[in-house]
Specification:
- This protein has 242 residues and is of the alpha/beta class.
- The protein folds into two domains: 135 residues, Periplasmic binding protein-like II (D-Maltodextrin-Binding Protein, domain 2), CATH 3.40.190.10; 95 residues, Periplasmic binding protein-like II (D-Maltodextrin-Binding Protein, domain 2, 3-Layer(aba) Sandwich).
- It contains eleven helices and eleven strands.
- The strands form two sheets. Strands 2-1-3-10-4-11 form a six-stranded mixed β-sheet, sandwiched between helices.
- β1, α2 and β2 form a beta-alpha-beta unit.
- α3 packs parallel to α4.
- It is globular, with a radius of gyration of 18 Å.
Length: 242
């Protein structure tokens, strides 16, 4: 049922993707959605364009693209998903690096009641089979001696935005997700404790993109995204522009 719901969500939004030169549709991984909403809003206002965003996990979006979804560009949470789309569609465009993301652990101190985070009844993470932030979390957790115990208490979300919902609705006391998602959520820091997690290669989170259908509007958008103004917005949401 979850897969069907995701499919209908994506198809619904694809219906709004235009066909004119000024109308393009971006496939944007969930962790990048907050900053892209601001970037696209500013760009549309300044350029009289009509750029649409469809957002889901990198895994779900990549499979929609190779099955014919009419996106113009794919912004993924890592290199592997961009490479997957490039190979499957036999694209000639090169893969670009956008920014480095940051994994964070967020703990609801009220629900934990003095317990350490790793003793929480439930811990939410993004599905590592679909979301690079989930894969990075699993890489971090596997290094712990108590991984087997923690693994039995993991709650999987389709993407980081669903993980955030688990957290703010207090269904879980601990969650691992992207720093950008937390910045946009404006959590009460007297209640939620946020800790940045160092992620090293091969699980380092490098957001990348691959162009599927080039256009003058898309080229202008990429130039704007990689400009000083675009980098300021990326930094505002906790990314390190590349």
């Amino acid at each position: 049922m979850k897969k069907i719901a995701v499919l209908f969500f994506i198809l619904f939004h694809l219906m709004s993707c235009g066909k004119q030169d000024s109308q393009i549709c971006l496939a944007v991984t969930s962790s990048l959605l907050p900053v892209f909403q601001e970037v696209v809003s500013v760009f549309n206002a300044e350029n009289d364009s009509d750029i649409k965003i469809v957002s889901a996990s990198s895994g779900n979006l990549s499979h929609q693209i190779i099955n014919g979804a009419p996106f113009d560009i794919f912004f993924a949470a890592d290199y592997a998903y961009s490479q997957f789309v490039k190979e499957k569609l036999q694209l000639s465009s090169s893969i670009g690096q956008l920014a480095k993301g940051t994994l964070v652990r967020v703990a609801n101190t009220e629900l934990l009641s003095q317990k350490p985070w790793f003793d929480a009844e439930y811990i939410a993470i993004a599905n590592p089979k679909l979301a690079p932030y989930g894969a990075a979390t699993m890489g971090f957790l596997r290094k712990r001696n108590d991984f087997n115990s923690i693994q039995n208490r993991l709650i999987m979300g389709q993407n980081v935005n669903q993980v955030l919902q688990y957290l703010i609705t207090e269904n879980v006391p601990v969650a691992f997700l992207s720093k950008s998602t937390i910045i946009n959520a404006n959590l009460d820091r007297s209640k939620f404790q946020v800790k940045e997690i160092e992620v090293l290669s091969p699980n380092e989170i490098i957001h990348s993109y691959v162009t599927i259908k080039s256009s003058t509007t898309l080229e202008a958008f990429l130039s704007f995204l990689e400009s000083e103004q675009g980098n300021v917005m990326l930094s505002k949401y906790g990314y390190v522009p590349l």
